[in-house]
Amino acid sequence: MNEDKPSPSRPSPPAVEPIVHRGVRYEQDMQAYRHGGTQSGGYLVAVDQANGERLWVLKVYEVPSQDAAGVSTPGRYFKSMRLLPDGRSIEIHSETGDRYTVDLRKRAATWTSGPDSRGEAQDRQ
């Protein structure tokens, strides 16, 4: 017999490898709620590679809330990230197709392309 097994309507967040640059590990913050975050997904955290200390966290993009409609808001996660050749910026692609550039010195994110033409990147330290 071929039994249809239920499957999740949405896969797990993509596994995105951290970037280590100049002694700092940059990674998607999957624990943002534990550290003052207000949404699931969309956060980049900088961690001291030597001692594991969180240096700063940045909300790269806003995840629109659907709570008012009575639906829980799913997270929106990074699909990929890479250090740009200038060594000062990271490019992040969200799973919805948006692309953001994070200036590591300014700790600021800028929407660069994709469906979210509003560019709602924000700083959060």
What's the CATH class of the domain at 19-61 and 74-113, please?
Mainly Beta
Q: Classify the helix fraction into a percent range.
A: under 10%
Major sheet: 4 strands, antiparallel
Structural class: mainly beta
Number of extended strands: 8
Number of helices: 0
Assign the CATH architecture of the domain at 19-61 and 74-113.
Beta Barrel
What is the string of SSEs from the N terminus onward?
EEEEEEEE
Determine the CATH topology of the domain at 19-61 and 74-113: Thrombin, subunit H
Order of neighbouring strands in the sheet with most strands: 1-2-3-4
Tell me the β content: 25-35%
- Radius of gyration, rounded? 16 Å
Shape: globular
Mean pLDDT: 84
The stretches of 5 or more residues where confidence is low (pLDDT under 50) are: 119-125
Give the CA-CA distance, first to last residue.
Answer: 55 Å
Quick recap:
A hairpin with a 4-residue loop joins strand 7 (99-103) and strand 8.
Could you explain how this protein is built, in words?
The protein is an all-beta fold and 125 residues long. The protein has a domain at 19-61 and 74-113: Thrombin, subunit H (Beta Barrel), CATH 2.40.10. Helix content is 0%, strand content 34%. The chain has no helices and 8 strands. The strands form 2 sheets. A 4-stranded antiparallel β-sheet has the order 1-2-3-4, with no helix packed on it. A 4-stranded antiparallel β-sheet has the order 5-6-7-8, with no helix packed on it. The protein is globular, with a radius of gyration of 16 Å.
